[in-house]
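Give me structure tokens for this 152-residue protein.
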Amino acid sequence: MTLEERIIQALKENQISYEEIEHVPVYTNPTMAEALNVSEAETVKSLVLATKENKLIVLVLPGDKKVNWKITAEAAKTKKVSFAKPEVVKDAVGCEVGCVPPFGHIMPLPVYMDQDLTKTEYVYFNPGVHHKSIRIRSWDLKKLCNPAMVKA
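Here you go.
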């Protein structure tokens, strides 16, 4: 089962209403927002980060936000976090950088979610592929991810 199929299965099993949208391949949040005709804040940026101890975490942010490295490290109870190498991301998550989904339990990695992500009613994320996005309610995303909430 592909990562995308596992995500759809999780949405169905949890009875979460979603819409699947096909579009041109996108590799950044600004181009994703443009392809979907939504604000960048409505797109989800899912980043795989490595802690100082070489553990992986997923940081989930609104697409228009940058990582606050200090706050993220504090939330993960480590001294430092940095971007995981692309080959490490592919091995751990099952997809390329740029289309990492926000679901740590599917991968399984701890998820830290910026609380600003729940300020919009709907959010859009890539389900492990560059040419599709999933639209769900932001609160459903929070419920499904069961993240540690942070102000990143």
